[in-house]
Amino acid sequence: MYIYNMPRQKVDEKTIIKEALKLFRQKSYHATSMADIAMACGLLKGSLYHYFHSKEDLMIKVIESVHTFFAETVFTIAYNHSLDAVDRMDLIFTEAEKIFVDQESGEILGNVGVETALSMPEFQPTIQAFFSDYFKAIKEVYRSKFDEGMANELAERSVSEIQGALTLSRIFNDEKFIKNTHLRTVARLRKNA
Amino acid sequence: MYIYNMPRQKVDEKTIIKEALKLFRQKSYHATSMADIAMACGLLKGSLYHYFHSKEDLMIKVIESVHTFFAETVFTIAYNHSLDAVDRMDLIFTEAEKIFVDQESGEILGNVGVETALSMPEFQPTIQAFFSDYFKAIKEVYRSKFDEGMANELAERSVSEIQGALTLSRIFNDEKFIKNTHLRTVARLRKNA
Amino acid sequence: MYIYNMPRQKVDEKTIIKEALKLFRQKSYHATSMADIAMACGLLKGSLYHYFHSKEDLMIKVIESVHTFFAETVFTIAYNHSLDAVDRMDLIFTEAEKIFVDQESGEILGNVGVETALSMPEFQPTIQAFFSDYFKAIKEVYRSKFDEGMANELAERSVSEIQGALTLSRIFNDEKFIKNTHLRTVARLRKNA
Amino acid sequence: MYIYNMPRQKVDEKTIIKEALKLFRQKSYHATSMADIAMACGLLKGSLYHYFHSKEDLMIKVIESVHTFFAETVFTIAYNHSLDAVDRMDLIFTEAEKIFVDQESGEILGNVGVETALSMPEFQPTIQAFFSDYFKAIKEVYRSKFDEGMANELAERSVSEIQGALTLSRIFNDEKFIKNTHLRTVARLRKNA
DNA sequence: AATGAATGAGAATTCATTCAT
DNA sequence: AATGAATGAATTCTCATTCAT
What we know:
The structure is a homotetramer of 193-residue chains.
Chain A: H1 13-27, H2 34-41, H3 45-48, H4 55-78, H5 85-101, H6 111-119, H7 124-143, H8 148-171, H9 176-191
The first copy, chain A, binds a DNA duplex (21 and 21 nucleotides) through helix 3.
């Protein structure tokens, strides 16, 4: 609620991106207004334009920030060859799940992303960039145990499965889908050792 | 494009649902206006309210119509025990792909559905009902070859994989994801015979 | 003032154009809001978009309506060769003055037009079209007494003088500038008979 | 275009007035934002308020600066009785044209002024003061050859004609209107010698 | 003097919905 | 059944202005 003459808030770009991400995840891009985001930051809506040219610009930066966060905390694991493949895969899922479940840094590329991309094609490249990196990371893990062609196929399949499991987890409000995918994927990799 | 004095179409509930489905798929629920839908039907937006109480009501009926259509053309295959499991699975994918790819009757439950459900929780039960039936059908096929527990697990996994593949197909504008999932799923089932 | 549940107003495009013209004249294009115009019509601002795509669209139609009105009531006099040149010139001024002074149908092409055209070049052709017709009409009158070249020069000069007199009349809130121009122009033409 | 870290300009009131004048002329008062002006000066918009209380205040000072500039470079010629009337008139036009055409010091009193005055009556006195001096100067020239009444009439007419020619020059993007007015006015004066 | 963050009011525009005809 | 005019609330975005640092 806005209180007249409230003390001037100080925020920064990061805070706004974080709050926007939270809301876009909860309510989708289209159903979240700039006023919603501003209020979550303790600002008035006009103030957001100090940081971002437009809602679209903000969305792009939200997507990029999720991408960066994934790159740093998840994808990077795939390239750590001091761990064996099974451990890397396990860790990747563990870290990704934290993010998926987390209210703060949650993932939006899959579900929010797709629907948003339908109406706003300008988001597509940014979303594609994320999934390309995702795919590359998963493939890197499989390459420790499989040839190029097989690693490719398995990576494509795993990313699909994870993405679908996330969808189902949201639809049924039940994390079991993503958790089961985790267990199954790691188990299969171990068996194939 | 609106054409002035365009020939008055014969419209009925079905036509409107079909046109709405097309638009929701193309542009998402939120980015499609009642005026868009009306125009596609050769009506003015006020006229839509003779058929549907609200945009939400229309969306619910769109989802239900997709559900019915899937039940009749896809899920039913799973229960046709005159075909063997591999053939049923193959046919299910073949039919489903037709729908996914088709501009007219296309699927919206996964991608559009999720994002919509986020902002409009009233859609969730309808969407869940669809996926429950989907899951049951796939499981029915696996039951021909596997025990309850295994069939369950495999069905959960397949539905996830299909759903994720659809997401990726849309993001990358490339049907290979859903096609590869088709091939892999049938191949695995055949091997396990 | 908006009164809740006020009876639905009925207006038409012409009414809106007339009210918009009045306001654009009084307050300039930029300082007149769509809400101002709507209120003057007894509508809410959203309703204007039923008739006009945008404020720009409305402005274009306002300009065109002034042009049409001038063509019908003023320029047409120039081509009525049953009157002699002096009478035609006199009548042209008399009719134009009515319009310039009139709150309802007032002229906006010169003063409002120029400044508006600076920030919105899309208005320029419409405004130029008006002045071209204006010039042609005045020249037609001079042609009864002068050769082509002289008529051209005199017309250019008269249109300039009228336009400038209008500017000064507005700046000093004094109709004498335009009235004196009327008298001088007719007197000169009579002398040259 | 804003260039990041652009070299800090030496700004003072005069610079700001000059830049504001340029922009008001190009885009009109209403379509020019304080941010536009600040950017043109290499400042941020908040900084303008160290020099001017408000945008209106700035506009007033812009108008006054044009007035002063005209007084010093144009009107003063009228009172230089060491030149004959024709030469003074010619020189007045020559100097005024330089200003009208010039991007830097250009005239705004007529076109921008009128429209602005409509929405902001507080500018009216300042604009009237300018035209009064303009009128007095032109009349002074005519007084060398005509009696009080005639000089009055001719001055009124000349100022109107110049002002209208400026309007037309802007509308048609063609300097011929103001140039022709120059030639005609001087020629008439010479003939009447 | 200058910044840059924030304000708050108001702009144009969109849109689901209503309803008299 | 269909229209088309109107609503009213919401939305994105702009902008003059303020002010602590």
